[in-house]
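Quick start: what a row looks like.
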Amino acid sequence: MSTLIDKNLSVGIWSLDHKKLARWYEEVLGFKVREEIDLPNDKCIDFDFGENYFFIGKHDKIHGENLDPYRVMVGFNVKSVNNTYNFLFKKGVRFIAKPFEAPGGGFWCMTISDPEGNILQFYGDK
């Protein structure tokens, strides 16, 4: 581990309509809200990921749509990629890549898109 980085990780996705996008993460992915922050220039909904942070937020520098969603992909570890696929398929999620074994072998992957085109990947056992 880098000497600059502690053990925690923070991931934020910025949106023009953070409440609508956060609702999708709650309703479709089943994420649990830890807290909602409402500051004058920053707003966010933080989800419960233990000591790590994953939030959907809004600030005054966000304008227009995400023009390059393939630049950053957020990854989540799951127990079973196939079970996660079946769960999300029933919810009508847009799949970019259905479950497949990673090129190097040893674990499985799957890729989806959220309603704003942000790319999410899931890793784990088959």
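That is the whole record. The chain is about 15% helix and 45% strand. The longest strand covers residues 42-49.
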